Structure formats: structure tokens, C-alpha cells
């Protein structure tokens, strides 16, 4: 295995220009969630050149599952997401987005290119007779970033389609701009937050701003409600729990001299455990209901998003062992990934899974965060990702077969 992995680094480096070309093409032509038609076609065209791979299209809209089967044996999955964000790019790159207001600001272009590279090397291993027995499913998933009219992202549709019913374990890599290129960040257990978005409408009775006593002022009620919302995490949730509540939008009225009929507050609540998640929702409902104390009423809509991402400990160890063998000079950091959400969590709820964060930042250069209009990544990370994915797949097949 060690000799194979030594050569694997060279093989991954040998296709670096292809990886860069793929990533830059995807970066230039980003598509939003559930709109990844051309992205999907590009991925399929790349996969069709590989021998031994069968392609299933049209999952969750534009999703692809590419299957590489080498006799009977364990079934594993490697996953990448393909969608972009509604962000206007400001990087000034020569290959910047050509789609106004749409940008790959979360590294999904690199995720897709990396998984394509891993598929190529693993297909070569299959042809050479060096791939362990079993089946690898390459999941090119749409719609990680946003939901459809049913409130669902892409991962639940992959589960609903049954493409993961026979899968025993799944792995994913995510770009990590706060770590230097090639470094790995891993975490066992809860690693990213659950996400529930809320829209709270506080209703009153509007009127002339010069006669506030003749109204039930929803702006005044909203001011008290905001205090309740912001105090919820610090005064209602166990300090040892991991939770966040943020308001992203407040809207009410259109004139300086008119008290409106209603004010709408939009925000998000996040947690690392189901217990805290449920408590956040219960406390949010209680705060919203306090509008009645001031003579108003309310409507509260909560859109339940993905659960917290919970990484399997044995698969985290597999990531670590693979990285140490391939890249002994690179650092491995063990820490949760933050309060962002990741719909790979749906897959991790169904079967043992682990997402690792792969450093893509520069040592002596400012590294903008994910979801920034100036987000960039060091493309030297691409061969790292390919080698990690490929070696991890070999190790996982061999481990599952025991």
C-alpha cells in the first residue's frame, strides 16, 4: 500500500493541469442550486471518457452518480457538490464568473474537479487490476447551498432515490481557506451546525405617526421581540451547548410618518445537537408569542434545514491515517468546522460518513473566507484532494471487506 500511495502522489500531480482546467471552466460558468444543467453535462462528458464507469443522471434534478464496480464486495461513496452561490464575484481573476450575480464562493468547483480526478485515477486502477474488490459510487450532488419549494436541498433527494441504500460508508472533502494548502482539519462527532431559518411577522394596527397612541405599533413590539431573540442563546441555552441565533432581515413600513401594520423579522438558528435544536425552536416560539403582551399578534414560519453534521470516528481516523501516509509534512488539525451548515449531514445520518476540510489557503497571502465575493483558493490543493480521495477509497474498500 505504501508503494502504491507514493506513486499515487505522482499520478495526481501529473493530472494537475487537467484539474485546474476543469476547476476554472466550472468557475467561469457557475450555476445556482437546482439549475446545474451545464455543470452536470460537463461532469458527465468527463466521466464518459473513463472506462468501467456507469453513469446515472437526473438525480435531484441534475445530479449524477457514477458507479465503478470491481466484482462483488463492499460499496462505498465519495461525494462532491456542484452548485454555486448568488454572489457577485469581485476577485478580478482571468477566469472569474461570467454569470452576473452567481459565483463559486464555497469551493464547489474545486470539489467537483477533485472528485473527477479521483474517478479518473480509480478507473485507471480498475483497468490495471489494482483496485480492491467492491463498488465505488461517485456522487456529484446538486443543490447543497439552497432549498427548493419543498424546503429540501440535494442530499435528501439522493437518499430518496435510493442510490445510497447499499452504501456502507461515505467520504467527502471540503475546501478550507483558513488552513494552509494541504493541511487537513478533521473532527469526530458534531462538526457543523443544524440550520433552521425563521420568518416572524409581528402584526399590529398602523396609523399616523403623529398619533402613536391610536395604533398598536409593531415596530415598538419588534424592538422588544429582538431583545428576547438575542437573549435567547445567552439566557435560555446551556452555556456548554453549541448554539447561535442571528437576525438577517427586518422590514416594516415605507414612509417616515406612517406606523406600519406589521414588521417581518427573518433569521436563522443553529445548533450542534438535536436537544439544543429543539430547545431553540421552543424558545423562539415563546419569544414570538410575547407580541400578545403588547396588544399585537404574530405569525411564525420555521423552515427546517439540514441536521448537524456528525462525523464517524473510525472514518475520521481513516482520513488522518491516509493524510499522514501521503503527506507526512502537512499538519492535521482536530477541531469542529464552525456554525455553517452542510447537507452532507443527511447522508451522515443514514450511514457512517466523514467530511474532512482540506486547506486551500496561502501562507503569506490574505485568504478571504467561504461565501465571500473575493473568495479564492490555491489550486495546488487539487492534486492533494485527488490523492486523498483515491487513497482513502482504496483503504476503505479494504477495510470494509475484512
TrEMBL record:
The Mn(2+) ion enhances activity. It comes from the Bacteria. One of its GO terms (molecular function) is metal ion binding. Pfam families: M20_dimer (PF07687), Peptidase_M20 (PF01546). GO terms for biological process: diaminopimelate biosynthetic process. SUPFAM superfamilies: Bacterial exopeptidase dimerisation domain (SSF55031), Zn-dependent exopeptidases (SSF53187). Its cofactor is Mn(2+). Mn(2+) binds at residues 106, 108, 145, 174, 371. Keywords: Hydrolase, Manganese, Metal-binding. The keyword Transmembrane helix does not apply. This is Amidohydrolase. It comes from Sediminibacillus halophilus.
